[in-house]
Amino acid sequence: MNHRAGAAGPGNPINAECHALKIAVEVAQAWHKGGGPDRPEVPLGVVATLALASLATHRKAEVAEWVRGRSAAEFLGFARWVWRAVLVQRPDVLRLAAPIVGWLDGTDEQLADRIKRTADAALAAGQLELTSGDRRFDADLLGPVLGALRSPAATKVDAQMYTPGDVALALTSVMLGDVKPGQAFVDDTIGTGGLFRAAAQVIRHRGLAPAAIAWYGADVDELAIAAAAVNSVIWQLGPNVILYVGDPLAEPDWSAAAAQQKVQFHREVHALRGVLAALDLENTPR
């Protein structure tokens, strides 16, 4: 079946990409306002938090208004709630996203204010419009955000971090071929997952669910992999996502190593839950 880029998904992918770039610039400017350490992992984690929160509701305006009306401390509490839900539902995603959620623990007042200012800027730029509903399939927001945060001017987007949508669609249409359930899509320079997003759109257009195939991605950048893990939830790629932090050229068998890491992690999580249940900590006499 031939794939037509214009029919890749709902909405207008080009407009969605422009919107993502706008949000990225606004987030970077808000984060750097007033100075302070660069720490790109923090604002990237803030945008990821809002993206994950927006998946749970269609009442975007009310959520945005509620968040904007909270104090910095209250927003941090809200962010912890969001990531606790991720821990319960997708602990493998939290494992990979750990580099962009460290700010949830031990945040001082100055950093908390920067975090809240950044969240407000993302909301004002319309992030919830882009990361909720079907429109979230049309763009990679976290790639441009990471690129803008790493740009010396804080107003440009590093092209290394993401692949433009039209290019990604053309590439994946060829790469996928006659895709069938159970097959794997592999990208050993995944960045924040732009090719994954495009491939998922092609697969949907062909009448399949992205969760029907396995997704393998590698990158040397742990922040990019953290963003790709979050994007896998945003784009509904399913649980068969294997991500690896490292150089695939130095580790030819990286996909098997990453799969084993994921299996081992799930075993540890399962064992920990069993221990907690056995201890029955909630009912332990004080």
Describe the protein's topology.
Layout: H1 13-32, H2 41-54, H3 60-68, H4 72-89, H5 91-97, H6 109-124, H7 127-130, H8 142-150, H9 165-176, E1 184-187, H10 194-205, E2 214-219, H11 222-234, E3 241-245, H12 254-279
Parallel strand pairs: 1-2, 2-3
Number of helix segments?
A: 12
Strand content: 5-15%
Q: How many individual domains?
A: 2
Biggest sheet: strands side by side, in what order? 1-2-3
Structural class of the secondary structure composition?
Answer: mainly alpha
The whole-number mean of residue pLDDT values reads: 85
The helix-strand sequence is: HHHHHHHHHEHEHEH
- Overall geometric form: globular
Specify the helix fraction band: 55-70%
| Rg of Cα set | 19 Å
C-alpha termini separation: 65 Å
Q: What are the low-pLDDT stretches, counting only 5+ consecutive residues below 50?
A: 1-11
Total strand count, please? Answer: 3
Main β-sheet: number of strands, strand sense, barrel status?
3 strands, parallel
